[in-house]
Amino acid sequence: MPDMENALYVVATPIGNLGDITLRALETLRGVDLVACEDTRHVRHLLDHHGIKVPTIAVHQHNENEAAEKLIRLLGEGKRVALVSDAGTPGVSDPGARTVAAVRAAGFRVIPLPGPSAAIAAMSASGLVDRRFLFVGFLPAKVVARRTAIAELAAVDAALVFYEAPHRVMETVADLVAGLGSPREIVIARELTKLFEQIERMPLAAAPAWLAADANHQRGEFVLVVSAPPPREGVDAETERVLAALLADLPVKQAARLAAEITGQPKNALYARALQLKGD
Ligand code: SAM
To answer: Which of 10, 11, 15 for mutating ligand 1's site (highest number of atoms within 8 Å of CB)?
Structure first.
């Protein structure tokens, strides 16, 4: 690419299938002076597959600050640098964010090249129709911290997207069942884009038995997507408090509209409740 800028290119790479790389990512990897990556051998495999010969430099969790300084020096010399992680999108449950922050702070342009990410791939094939999803990534490895994190997520009105390693998937799923309640569903997406890809949707409570039914079900890389909690009946206590406070000074219609804006709850439900409160 002759018109490539002196910048840091943040390049998404495949999460399994080496064909999942964009034309622009290939052009960019071919055109840069250096590829900064987590594991140089891993990225070499990808580059060799596409016949790309470019020097690499390791940037991982333990040397990220130091490596960022080096990249900034190279950018200062007018070099074009790509940043990739082992798989998917850098900065998504992967190192990269600190490098990007440092490079931006040093005044260089950071150019994203979007592409694969396991969370988005899993969401896209989940068939869940929830309006919103929250990307949680990895839960804490320690039991108490993990259960606390799950408890904090229980009331979030969105589908929840988790990453999990095979050796912890059984315990994490058991904790999700205990912490998130039974009317929810789960989509277990393992080995996305790879030979043994499997995407199974089931009631959350059925997931431990499904995982235990076959040792293969516990192998590989996992994205777990849990559907949003069922809609709550009526208006919750916090919304009701806001509505009541507004009603003290405003007409019903205006109070309902403002309460909807403040709380994000549907205006019609708030209007109906406001009428009841006024009647009381
Ligand atoms: N940066 C990556 C992304 O954009 O998806 C995520 C990297 S994170 C260190 C690795 C985790 O992502 C795995 O433990 C797994 O939870 C998930 N993951 C990555 N590749 C996957 C795949 N092919 N199938 C299912 N999950 C995958």
So the answer is: 15
Measure 163 CA to ligand 1 centroid, in angstroms. Answer: 7
Res 1: pLDDT: 59
> For residue 272, what pLDDT band results from cuts at 50, 70 and 90?
confident
CB distance 87 to ligand 1 below 6 Å: yes
| CATH code reported for the domain at 119-226 | 3.30.950.10
What top-level class would CATH report for the domain 7-116?
A: alpha beta
Q: At what angle do helices 237-247 and 252-263 cross, to 10 degrees?
A: 140
- Ligand 1 pocket check for 118: Cβ under 6 Å: yes
Confidence (pTM): 0.84
As beta bridge partners, residue 34 has 81
pLDDT digits (tens, 9 = 90+) for 81-98: 999 999 999 999 998 999
